[in-house]
Write a structure and sequence with these properties.
The chain is α/β, with parallel strands linked by helices. Helices cover 29% and strands 24% of the residues. It has helices at 97-104, 134-137, 151-158, 166-190, 202-211, 224-237, 253-263, 288-294, 313-322, 327-333, 336-342, and strands at residues 2-9, 17-24, 27-32, 41-44, 49-52, 54-59, 107-112, 120-128, 138-148, 217-221, 241-245, 266-269, 299-301, 359-362, 373-378, 381-385. The model has no long low-confidence stretch (mean pLDDT 96).
Length: 387
């Protein structure tokens, strides 16, 4: 057993306090004051702030490797606009140095997967940032199915004359969902009769968890009209979704609050600390998190790594605080909110007994740009120590 002693503990669930946190076999076993155990190893964190490890709800870490071009570019498959069968775990390189940098920044969990070149890009994974084998780092896989609207799929497939307009992007997704529903109907009708079963279809089989509401579509949507199209299709097919990026969502939030509530749609906003590199980012605003908060919308913040390097996730939250977002809400957006929205809150996102011992220790306010993460613990193991 290890015990962090005398820290300012911000558990996210419950009030902050000065005291201790004990963990053993990768799990948190106790929180409180003056924790003692005869076999414990004590670590003095007096004067430090202790939080849950931070969670990035949308990134591409390990798939667009740092400092590489083609050799490490495995995030987008350009051969076909519909690739639900692709799995992020087959492309992630855990030796990408960005994982180590994430740990040094207090980021202990990420949701990473394919980029947004394709209408349906493939399967995301929720994983830890420490490890040398992907299988040992997985929290949940698959965690979501990537889909994309807007400029990216248009740009990628215009040259091949696959499609030119947002209409065709949307119809491509609709057709895939309709084909999957029909495939599922035939499977159900055949039951155990092998002769009546349809021929196996790798793509449609990969989409079955989506239409069965077992897996959400993780929808890349920046512009307001793309967000509305995503909502429209989610209603048509009764599927679960998260709306990722949501750049112009704050402009129409009063119009779509009830839709989001009806769909129980997760909102993952960002990357906010970036330039307006394309038309659909022209209304990018650091005030968006505050506006969502004021409208009662739960959201997570993302880096979209490598757009923003993974270790700067808390910097994004800090800048939102500067623009009026309460500090507590900012911390929640990169801890518990992120975990709840992506579906891993049973494991991570807060400091509670029974959860994974993923802990970040800071020399001061974690949302102060001058503060350093001095210790990071993942699954109860110290992976960064500069105390």
């Amino acid at each position: 057993m290890k015990v962090l002693k005398h820290g300012k503990i911000i558990p996210i669930v419950g009030d902050e306090f000065t005291g201790d946190i004990a963990f053993e076999d990768g799990k948190i076993v106790a929180l409180g004051a003056n924790l003692e155990h005869p076999d414990a190893e004590y670590i003095n964190v007096d004067g430090c702030v202790v939080t849950p490890g931070f969670i990035d709800a949308h990134c591409h870490i390990g798939m667009f490797e740092d400092g590489m071009g083609f050799e490490g570019d495995d995030g987008n498959e350009y051969s076909n606009p519909v690739t639900p069968e692709l799995r992020a775990i087959d492309a992630i390189n855990p030796f990408d140095r960005c994982f180590e940098e994430a740990c040094r920044g207090g980021v202990t969990s990420v949701v990473t997967g394919p980029g947004s070149a394709n209408v349906i890009g493939g399967q995301f994974v929720a994983m830890k940032t420490a490890g040398s084998r992907v299988e040992d780092m997985i929290i949940r896989e698959p965690i979501a199915m990537k889909a994309a609207f807007g400029e990216n799929p248009k740009r990628v497939y215009t040259d091949s004359k696959t499609f030119y307009t947002r209409m065709t992007v949307a119809s491509t997704l609709r057709k895939t969902l309709l084909d999957t529903l029909e495939y599922d109907r035939k499977l159900t009708a055949a039951k155990n009769n092998a002769e009546k079963k349809p021929d196996y279809d790798f793509k449609l089989a990969s989409m079955l968890p989506v239409i069965r509401r077992e897996l959400p579509l993780k929808i890349h949507a920046h512009r307001a009209d793309d967000i509305l199209t995503a909502i429209r299709i989610a209603k048509e097919f009764n599927i679960r979704i998260t709306l990722d990026h949501f750049t112009e969502g704050y402009l129409i939030i009063d119009r779509i609050k009830e839709d989001l509530k009806q769909l129980d749609a997760g909102i993952i906003i960002g990357p906010l600390l970036s330039d307006r590199s394309k038309i659909e980012l022209r209304n990018l605003s650091m005030t968006a998190p505050r506006i969502l908060y004021e409208n009662g919308i739960k959201f997570a913040m993302m880096t979209d790594h490598p757009v923003i390097p993974e270790q700067y996730l808390p910097v994004c939250a800090a800048l939102a605080v500067r623009e009026g977002l309460p500090e507590k809400a900012a911390l929640e957006s990169i801890t518990l909110n992120a975990a709840e929205i992506v579906g891993i809150a049973d494991r991570v996102g807060s400091l509670e007994v029974g959860k994974d011992a993923d802990i970040a220790v800071f020399c001061g306010d974690p949302l102060d740009a001058r503060t350093k993460c001095v210790m990071t613990i993942v699954n109860g193991k110290t992976v960064h120590d500069n105390l």
